[in-house]
């Protein structure tokens, strides 16, 4: 699903955010990317989403080569990716349900199907009761769940979540991680970035990489 070989990312201002990244993720796997602030976690997710392109090495996501020349195909690939952004990117003035439905508008599904899938996704994240609440009235954790519902309602092959635990307390943060883990199946992989190393130490199921100054400085494989 993800194959990175010697990947580099240098931003236009000369900052080398990633160097020599080798990575493999198979269907059904969950990968946790940890590391301190500025170590390159978000930059790596941006490459996986095709928001940035590698400046060296080779990267494939779901068989799609990730390079500037492939921009048109990468736009198509995004339909089967489920991003959960750090800042959620929910649309204010719209309800939770509308936000989830808007995330599905390019899939070409009939309206009744979109409505059903959006409803089912909100049920899965435990927010059915907030379906008609404008997103600006939701708590941070609820907003996070809407963002997750929006990502999973599309039934993506790859879920990519950037710092999904934010400043949640330990129990709620572990709940969010376990919720994301629950969407993994034989066809779906999950990638999560977090600087909350203390939380990751409590999890023994999955694949873990530790980043430091743009490189991978440690790897661990838990039970799967
Ligand atoms: N658009 C950009 N242009 C130039 N440098 C950038 C850009 N985005 C990020 N960087 C730099 O790249 C490095 C890695 O940043 P990145 O956001 O990937 O780290 P991170 O591990 O996700 O940090 P955090 O945990 O704080 O979100 C940092 O030095 C950052 O300042």
Automatic annotation (TrEMBL):
Keyword Nucleotide-binding attached: yes
GO cellular component: plasma membrane
Origin superkingdom: Bacteria
GO MF terms held by the record: ATP binding; ATP hydrolysis activity; transmembrane transporter activity
Keywords: ATP-binding, Nucleotide-binding
Domain ABC transporter, chain residue ranges per copy: 2-224
Pfam families attached to this UniProt entry: ABC_tran
PROSITE patterns cross-referenced by the UniProt entry: ABC_TRANSPORTER_2
InterPro entries attached to this UniProt entry: AAA+_ATPase, ABC_transporter-like_ATP-bd, ABC_transpr_LolD-like, P-loop_NTPase
Annotated protein name in UniProt: ABC transporter related
Species in which this protein is naturally found: Alkaliphilus metalliredigens (strain QYMF)
């Amino acid at each position: 699903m993800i194959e990175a070989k010697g990947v580099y990312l240098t931003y236009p201002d000369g900052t080398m955010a990633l160097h020599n990244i080798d990575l493999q993720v198979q269907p059904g796997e969950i990968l946790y990317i940890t590391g301190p602030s500025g170590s390159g976690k978000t930059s790596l997710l941006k490459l996986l989403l095709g928001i940035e392109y590698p400046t060296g090495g080779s990267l494939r996501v779901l068989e799609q080569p990730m390079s500037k020349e492939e921009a048109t195909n990468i736009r198509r690939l995004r339909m089967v990716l489920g991003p959960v952004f750090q800042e959620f990117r929910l649309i204010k003035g719209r309800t939770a349900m509308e936000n989830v439905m808007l995330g599905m508008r390019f899939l070409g599904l009939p309206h009744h199907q979109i409505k059903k899938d959006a409803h089912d996704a909100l049920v899965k994240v435990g927010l059915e009761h907030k379906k008609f609440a404008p997103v600006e009235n939701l708590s941070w954790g609820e907003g996070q769940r809407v963002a997750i519902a929006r990502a999973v309602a599309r039934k993506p092959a790859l879920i990519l979540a950037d710092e999904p635990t934010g400043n949640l307390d330990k129990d709620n943060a572990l709940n969010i991680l376990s919720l994301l883990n629950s969407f993994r199946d034989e066809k779906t992989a999950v990638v999560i970035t977090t600087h909350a190393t203390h939380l990751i130490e409590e999890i023994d199921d999955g694949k873990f990489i530790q980043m430091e100054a743009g490189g991978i400085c440690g790897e661990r494989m838990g039970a799967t």
